[in-house]
Automatic annotation (TrEMBL):
Subcellular compartments: Cell membrane
Record key words, sorted: ATP-binding, Cell membrane, Membrane, Nucleotide-binding, Transport
Its membrane topology: Peripheral membrane protein
Protein name listed in UniProt: Dipeptide/oligopeptide/nickel ABC transporter ATP-binding protein
Superkingdom per UniProt: Bacteria
Species of origin: Embleya hyalina
GO CC terms: plasma membrane
Secretion signal, residue range per the UniProt entry: none
Segments forming domain ABC transporter: 17-266
Composition bias type Low complexity, residue spans: 337-346
Location of the region described as Disordered in the Swiss-Prot/TrEMBL record: 337-360
Length: 360
């Protein structure tokens, strides 16, 4: 394998983005919180990774570490390489040029990225003048192009608005335009549509997908909802308590989910073909405290198939990226051990109806 470099040209046989044994540990007053603990994945150009898991599973901390925007109490270890260039441990000044231009993020709340007292055109052009060194006229033209690209009607007129004069969906389109301003290689959307109503949510997700395909960017779509990433991703990583517990090509994950947590998460996705009162909404129990995590499987306390082995020994995820990896001693499709409550044990071969399409 090619050696990672911090300078020079991209390494040809490296994927666009690769994380290896990535850890984000936070020094909190209560003790060490392992928000991300040993995560590995790779994304090629034009590929989308869906990152799913319940609240607090480490999704945001993981993508923030790729962007270099973790809280100051965070210690980042392991490796993140963009086109073969290592980002972890690189001097901030050098890394900032990469993060600012080549990896961009769209947040859940558009007001996180927008300045409420500046007009949209100014916010768009300032970032392009700063990062791309464009002149005023050029930056203005490009701002209108970007607003058109993200489907803002009457872009010239809207560009003179302040953020509060736009609807939530329009504001999110503007933040997508801002994220695209420097032509990033990787676009990260962290729950970018969660706050929007279902119709607008779908429009924004479609827009992201179209732009990503057109520009050949790598994309990471973060969501607590497997239904949102189904049919929009090439691979899915399921996070639980700071770790990946299942990682696989998307079609394979839906057809043969193996981890008991993935199974439970699928059960928690609201399905429109099931009467409202029969729709399971949440996984019973709560996620564990990441500071006092026990040594066994972190999901054991909530898992119907858990036995003494699960409580004593943490199952490992395979290392072979691109294959179907899962960290479970008693995966779906195998018999739950004697004595365990096999509540979540069956249904491995049933394909959930929320799966809209399976990428080739
Ligand atoms: N600034 C911080 N200080 C201390 N702990 C933090 C901080 N930010 C996040 N955490 C903790 O890190 C863990 C992972 O949080 P993270 O925000 O990555 O979860 P998430 O999967 O994105 O959740 P959500 O779906 O709610 O956005 C959680 O236990 C959270 O409490
Ligand atoms: Mg989050």
């Amino acid at each position: 394998m090619a050696e990672p470099t911090t300078t020079g040209s991209p390494t040809p046989d490296e994927p666009l983005l690769r994380a290896e044994d990535l850890r984000v540990h936070l020094d909190t007053p209560r003790g060490l919180l392992k928000a991300v603990d040993g995560v590995s994945f790779a994304i090629e150009r034009g590929e989308t990774l869906g990152l799913v898991g319940e609240s607090g599973s480490g999704k945001s901390m993981l993508v923030r570490s790729l962007m270099g925007i973790c809280p100051s109490i965070a210690r980042i270890r392991g490796s993140v390489r963009l086109d073969g260039r290592e980002l972890v441990g690189v001097p901030r000044k050098e890394a900032r040029t990469i993060w600012g231009n080549r990896i961009a993020m769209v947040f859940q709340d558009p007001m996180t990225s927008l300045n409420p007292v500046l007009r949209i055109d100014r916010q768009l052009t300032e970032s392009m003048r700063l990062h791309l060194g464009l002149g005023k006229k050029e930056a203005n033209e490009r701002a209108i192009e970007l607003l058109t690209l993200v489907g803002i009607p009457e872009p010239l007129k809207r560009s003179r608005s302040y953020p509060h004069q736009l609807s939530g969906g329009m504001r999110q389109r503007v933040t997508i335009a801002m994220a695209l301003a420097c032509d990033p290689d990787v676009l990260i959307a962290d729950e970018a549509t969660t706050a929007l109503d279902v119709t607008v949510q779908r429009q924004i997700l479609d827009l992201l997908q179209e732009i990503q395909a057109e520009r050949g960017m790598g994309m990471i779509l973060v969501s607590h909802d497997l239904g949102v990433v189904a049919g929009r991703t090439d691979q899915i990583a399921v996070m639980y308590a700071g770790r990946m517990v299942e990682h696989s090509p998307t079609a394979d994950l839906f057809a043969h989910r193996r981890h008991r947590y993935t199974e439970a998460l699928l059960g928690a996705v609201p399905r429109l073909d099931v009467p409202r009162e029969q729709r399971p909404r949440a996984i019973p129990g709560s996620p564990p405290d990441l500071i006092t995590l026990a040594s066994g499987c972190a999901f054991a306390a909530r898992c119907g198939a858990a036995d003494d082995l699960c409580r004593a020994q943490r199952p490992e995820l395979g290392e072979d990226l691109g294959t179907h990896r899962f960290a479970c001693h008693h995966p779906v499709g195998t018999d739950a051990p004697a004595g365990a409550d096999a509540a979540s044990g069956d249904g491995a071969d049933e394909k959930p109806s929320l799966m809209k399409e399976t990428p080739a």
